[in-house]
Amino acid sequence: MTTLSQLIPAFCAEFPDAPSPRICQAPGRINLIGEHTDYNGIPVLPMAIDLQIRIAFAPGPGSRVRLRGDGAFFPPAEFANGHQIPASPTGSWDNYCKAAIQGINEHFTPDSFPGLDILVSGDIPIAAGLSSSSALVVACALAYLAVLDKELERDISRRKLANVLADAEHYVGTRGGGMDQAIILLGQRGEATKIDFFPLRTEQVPLPEGYDIVACNSMVKAAKTGEALHRYNEGPLTCQLIRALVEKQLQEDFGEEVRVERLGDLWSGNLCLTHPEVSDLLSKTFPKEYVTLDEAASRLAATPASIRKRWLGELPEPEHGFRLQARARHQRTEYQRVEAARDALLAGEPGELGRLMNESHESCARDYAVSCPELDQLVTVARSAGAVGARLTGAGFGGCTVNLVPSPRTASFIERVKRDYYGEFLGKRPEDFPASAVAVLSPSDCAGYVSPGR
Fold this sequence. Notes:
6-stranded mixed β-sheet, 13 helices, alpha+beta, Ribosomal Protein S5, domain 2
């Protein structure tokens, strides 16, 4: 990665006619617990990490946005700023910058659309589940705000910007929630952050002393393009159908119009159900494991075509139907685990946090079906190597695991993982996988502007 002291000279070499640049950076994140819940308004518990996307930027000519990067993942790109910015092909990295700029334009509705020159650098592994994409969105948004002469906390709060960018990132085709943008903009050095949604709320939580947070890369790319994008979006899309069926059940139970905008509303708002009450409700709504499209249509007095149009889109129907019972169970139990994990951290009980992390992985793998053989094996190896808690983190289907390791055992833990997973399971020689495949992470500062002297 280009260092901060190197970034300005590198920018000037790429854009020799540009004015003096500024620098901003946005950290990646690792999620300790609370997976695939944010888009349902259910809490999460991540932390910002000491790996960043860094960009140098300056106003550009006309309305042109010119993008350069210091790695193979960032080929040169250029596009016109305006009311509507057409997307590049799925998987193109410039879409993340386009998402940021279009989101800011829609929020502020500027009279003109200035150009922007950007040089991107970073050390967050790509497609590793550590949110390099959202960090890029946030960094580009900060750059564009500065070019528009908009200031954080004066013209837009960090919380509001997190909400704006969570919606804006749908531009790239993913139907995620707001965890990544919130932790990148609101995380604090030295602490994890419990995040609640609708409205966005944060609570800083201390990490256990004497333990390290270690990320282990499965070396399976957790990309969000092509078939992987469809697999990722299966969670948000099927949860929309779950919500509709739960709402229907509540309307029948209460004999009145009950509206549930998202699954998290079951525990809040006018309903304020307890965990046992939600468990009973879900059991009644989903008495069997699978729900076919025809069955859902009959239950909702709709046609299969209308259900697809409103909620499922082109999502293929599995042979036996959708596993809504298990997916709903994951939402309920993961909510409970996030709350219990926050309590465990406040009480200084790392063993309890580790137990909850282990349970979360089993739920992600069994009920939500977002794991893969490599992640499952990496979790097994990590636990045998000394992790008190190990689980997939991020979207799943590859990427990293997050591991809670007693600090005195961290060195031996890393060696065991390298030997047993990368060496024996993957069959790789030490020189065949990067040293960064296993990384001890520290909770970092949130995104912001930096001086080149730092």
